[in-house]
Amino acid sequence: MKKAIYIFLFIISQSFFAQQNNQLWKGYFSYNEIVDVESGSNAVFASTQNALFSQAVSSSNLNIYNSITGLKPDVISTIHHSDAFNKTFVGNNNGLILIQNADGSVTTKVDVIEEVPVPPNKKKINDFYEFNGRLYIAADYGISVIDIATLEFVSTYFIGTSGEETEVLQTTVFNNEIYAVTRNFGIRKASLSNPNLFDFSQWQTFDTGFWSGIVTFNNQLVATNANARTYRFNGNIPQEILNHNQAGLKLKTNGTELIVTTQNNVYVLNQSFSVLVHITQIPDFTVRFTAASVVGGIIYIGTEKDGLFSTSLANPTIFTAMSPNGPLQNKSFRLKKAPNKIWVVHGDYSQQYNPYPLDELGISTFTADQGWDVIPYSDLYGAKSLSDIAINPSNQNQVYVTSYFSGLLKMFGNTIELLNNTNTGANGLESLVLPGNPTYVDIRINSPAFDREGNLWVTNSYVNRAIKVLRANGQWQSYNLSGVTANLSTGRYNAMAIDKNNTKWIPSYNDGVVAFNENYNNKFIVINQENADIPTAVVTCLAIDNRNQLWIGTMAGLRVLSSVDRFVSDTELDVFPIIIQEGDLAQELFYQQPILDIAVDGANRKWVSIADGGVFLVSSNGQQTIYRFDKNNSPLPSNNVVDIEIDGVSGEVFFVTDKGIVSFLGISTKPSDSLGDVFVYPNPVRPNFSGTVKISGLTDKANVKISDIEGNLVYETTSSGGTIEWDTTAFGKYKVASGVYMVFVASEDGTDSMVKKVMIIR
């Protein structure tokens, strides 16, 4: 039954996305983690794991290709640009090949994934080599060939000495023979004129050593050896041309120069194999190099975490940062939206709340006028594995960031303070205690949330007094969970929700939901498998909707508490699943699905993310699936959406994934208090526009009527939240004609009204 429902939802989502314009989506990607750098005749191309960008040498304009523009990789492992065919090939860890065409379109090749008979983990693409209109693909199984003009899959060669698969790291052609550097069988070669290259016996071993790269340069074979040296071959005899002291990562040539990249070195050699440039550092950065290339006398250098840089061969002392503006890295964990700023942290912990290996990362911030900026780790007093963010609603300049190892960062303007067990007093933050190691300090703080009085609440894992509050007056207070939860000594907690009664609802690992309110004589109620119909004690997320229902996400499905007010009067709280009807059968919504996050929009609809399943938008009662977005049918870069944040003013929905951040421009904004700010957009609606007209600034349950200039009604609806959309049809039957249309808006009680106009040009 579950399978049938997912098929139905997939059809809905595919149909929806086919009608959408990517104007509804925005990308907030990082371009700092460079995987590969390639040269064209007059342009440079660089890739991260999930994006591609390029720049012509004569221009300062960057062309960016990512999931928003239609380039949807898995994990990029290598790239190649063909000047002859004006195409850029993008290889992936899973064998996927994407071709970025000159007109901006993307061609997807899944031949390696579908046709090569090797395990999925053996299909990584390591390198591309172009020769005589064919593209030779060096992969973890062997070599495949594509005809570049037709993009047809030509053949695959398994070139192990007994015909087995073997990792091929790089290929080249010299004197009409193809040479392949393999992981286990040295350098293998065969004649390109041989029609039977698919027969492993037609290949012979050229050299039995351990090599990592090979190119043809200045009519000679050049290869990098595992001994951290690069050689040219005189016949079949290798002659050393460079000792680079570190393992070679990339060996490249643009035809004029030879480029060798190691972790801490970039060497550029001329055709006489003399070193023209040796780069070991970039001023003001502590970098690890990943790849480099040369175009028109400019060296372009990719780094592991700091982006792409360029410098001149003639004067390699001044470096220019080339990467597009973006956050610190794509792997992100939590996002919070202030009215004029976005905050992102990149530290994380596992499903079991294990923060190791500890992350030493800064904080990314975004403003519309300044773009992305990074507060570096060096300014954070050693706070590791940053896990969540809380913005003071009464002062947007005061931000708290939790560390799941080091305590709590307090940020006010340019002032940063680390709060921990040494400066928060006897009722403040506590370190977990390791038997036999009393000096060990590990302060796991999470779940930051402000209540209506301006008090900041957090959780403190692995201690008895696990609930902490920093009062608005600066005083700390702790609340003990002894006798409340069964797993006190190992208690771990996710993001809490605070309701209108000031009750704190806290999702926990192995303890269900912990509800607490200090205003009712420190009352606690626990929702777990012993006293409620909850599918598992591992609760991952909570959301309180606009009708005061508590939506509970667990590692095995969804439950709902009918009203948070029940905490005040009851001693036990029962929850229920949402049952949806599919044909003649009933099914539990998100049955046994691991839920990562839930967010409520202005229309009381719920965005729900499923582990490795993308994200769903369901109606306010969960009975209707409105959208389902995943990597296949949307610009989501990953199906693991670890955090959802909604801008209630604009309706923008942010999806934080392990491979980057994107947003969907939704229509469910918070309702306004009056109709004084009603706004219609776009206006006018031009002939090439394919989206919908939005009418925002509405009060809740406002009546909206749209008529032509003669008074003929073409659309009517009631708002749920602050925005509605109109598809410019007459009640869904046909597109309305060009002309001016009147928009009449009235509040639910009829005491407020507004009239707007919108022009449609067909």
TrEMBL record:
Family annotation (InterPro entries): PorZ_N (IPR048954), Quinoprotein_ADH-like_sf (IPR011047), Reg_prop (IPR011110), Secre_tail (IPR026444), WD40/YVTN_repeat-like_dom_sf (IPR015943)
Location of the Secretion system C-terminal sorting domain: 680-760
Signal peptide feature range: 1-18
All residue ranges annotated as the PorZ N-terminal beta-propeller domain in the record: 44-204
Keyword set, alphabetical order: Signal
Pfam families: Por_Secre_tail, PorZ_N_b_propeller, Reg_prop
Keyword tRNA-binding appears in the UniProt entry: no
Signal found in the keyword field: yes
Name the UniProt record assigns to this protein: Two component regulator with propeller domain
Originating species: Flavobacterium aquaticum
